[in-house]
Design goal:
- The protein has helices at 3-17, 20-35, 47-61, 74-84, 89-96, 121-133, 147-151, 165-182, 192-197, and strands at residues 40-44, 67-68, 104-108, 137-141, 154-157.
- Helices cover 51% and strands 10% of the residues.
- It is of the alpha/beta class.
Length: 209
């Protein structure tokens, strides 16, 4: 079997294994953030940081949820890393943003962070702060034994071949946050092309807010 066939067959298998119930819980939980006037803070590193920036746009524009990510402000992020260290860079930003129980944290990470292995400690400390203040945590990750999967209110673990964990997990992070943004409980306005074609949840007049 060709590599392309193997990879795409795995994509289909992963899609079939994602918990539909947990995705519904994630969507309704994030919709509730908007209803209570909270904010959605989105964190990731590497590819996850890129996802966070894209997702902030989608949640703000399409879902009308006030959303932010610390990695969008390169000046503040690099100042914090330079002056105080990488491990506290996200948690310090969240403290300045006054994260609280009305808000929520959405985590994109392949491994989910680990104190034991000293991996993605800025994500770990961000999650610890969210837990401390009572903000719910949602995560899309690739390992069930990582910190995110252990502490999140809803954690989607993308089960896949370890040889291709990073590409599959990072791909499904985008697939699944787009699922949430377009969910009837979350979508407040359609995307541009859906609007032009008169389709989509909000375009059809079924906004569930």
């Amino acid at each position: 079997m060709s590599y392309a066939a193997t990879y795409l067959d795995e994509v289909a298998e992963i899609a079939g294994s994602v918990s539909r119930e947990d995705m519904e819980r994630m969507a309704t939980g994030i919709a509730a953030v908007r209803e209570r006037g909270g904010r959605l803070f989105i964190v990731g590193v590497g590819g996850g940081a890129g996802h966070a920036s894209h997702a902030v746009n989608d949640f703000r524009k399409i879902a009308h949820i006030e959303s932010y990510t610390p990695s969008d402000n390169v000046s503040e992020l690099t100042a914090r890393v330079n002056d105080e260290g990488w491990e506290t860079s996200y948690s310090a930003w969240l403290r300045t943003s006054r994260i609280g129980a009305r808000d929520a944290l959405l985590v994109f990470s392949v491994g989910g962070g680990s104190r034991e292995h000293n991996v993605s400690m800025n994500l770990v400390q961000a999650m610890e702060l969210a837990t401390e203040v009572g903000a719910p945590i949602y995560a899309i990750v690739g390992k069930a034994d990582g910190h995110a999967a252990q502490v999140a209110d809803v954690a989607i673990v993308v089960e896949c071949d370890a040889a291709r964990r990073t590409p599959h997990v990072e791909s499904f992070q985008a697939i699944l946050w787009h699922l949430v943004v377009s969910h009837p409980a979350v979508e407040a306005q359609p995307g541009k092309w859906e609007e032009l074609e008169g389709v989509g949840t909000a375009a059809a007049g079924t906004d569930a807010r």
